Request: fold
Amino acid sequence: MSELDVLTARVLQPGFDGREIPDWVRRRLADGLGSVILFAANIKSPTQLRALTDGLRAENPDMFVAIDEEAGDITRLEAATGSSFPGNLALGAVDDVALTEAAARSIGALVRAAGIDLDYAPVADVNSEPRNPVIGARSFGSDPTLVARHVAAAVRGLHAAGVAACAKHFPGHGDTVVDSHFGLPTVTATLAELRRDTLPPFAAAAEAGVRAVMVAHLLMPEFDAEHPASVSPAVIGGLLRSELGFDGLAVSDAIGMAAVRERYGLAGAAVRALAAGIDLVCVDSNTTDADLTAITDAVAAALRDGTLSEARLVEAAERVAAFAEWRRAARETPVNAADATDATDTADATDTTDATDIANAADAARASIGLAAARRAATVLRADDGALPLKAAPHVVEAVLPRSLATCLAELLPGTTSSQLAATTEVPADRPLVIVVRGIQRSPEDLERVTSLVKDRPDTIVVDLGVAHIDPGGAAWIASYGASRVCLQAAAEILTGR
Reply:
């Protein structure tokens, strides 16, 4: 391999299919691939996962492993069961920064025990658009000041657990109605509005020592009317580097997302991102060997024709190498696993003690922090006299959700039945009715169905597991501020008076 091929390998971060290391990943790690990202499909159990991450590093001790473990609605480590933590919106609703820091430290201990170095969290977006189809409960809220203080707390908590944090999705995905997985969102904010409404959490993350920032696929005409942020020198160099003064790792959101892939192709988007100032190109969850070959060839062609300068590639590779060197040293620096739940020590500690010790500490923390936080967050926004608690097993009508509140309710009220909101035309007249939605304003069809059901049954209790923005009517309105396992349990406890 040429020196430029080695540099290119260092700045690419693929995902891969399966729970074992594919041969092509082994080969590329041996040739200098700098990192990989894992998803739920790569994970079966803590033991299997740790064997996987150890195996990856055995191929290249200088590589690092990343994951999207936001907890709450977005969890990879607990995808099978649902997260043990309530997620950012619930933590923002409680608004206790010590709790947020403790939760982040506990999440970090779980990530650390898995042998993972970089967590693509916290979400630093200010969810100012209630109809936002992709952020919602992943954000701490709609107030920039509140979001900023909780983002800083989350960064401190992850770092104290020995995991590198990454603030995302710069410069802010909260004021959008398009999901960049499927299209290109446009943010029309002026610089003054960005400084006031969306940049404070990223500035707070930088001040807290965040090691990485993920740049989103957003069109920001104020800076660049042609190029999405992730491939825009004006956004990365001007706004992130100069305006915020951030000198850490600039990571692209998955370059395989439609917002950029449909415009430039996978390889073309990767080259443009590097040229614009991205240091680490996150490729996609199901990257193939052919994908990396295409990107490597495109980078070589761009170096030849001057589209990408060698100096820029070297700069990116050196920044990734410095991050990897820090992570390697961090893995060899002990930390007291018993301190995994102590939110008072916010030093940028980096660990490792025995993985079992850290996992046990994380288990204890989840038991004490996750459900307690969800219970503190869950709120009765409005209720008629006598509407709560339920007096009998209800019929539950649910929107499409990651997991069922009806199942959780049935454990407390045997005989609970359920149906899907999209398919429900009639409900039992002699049973209490509970309707479960997640940010009902995001779906006009669901809002219309709920309105119709509530009109026929004014005794309905509505539970919103997302951003509770529109009062749906009925006898009671409950917000859990998240759809994780513990959020469902907290909502079920309110419904049953437990």
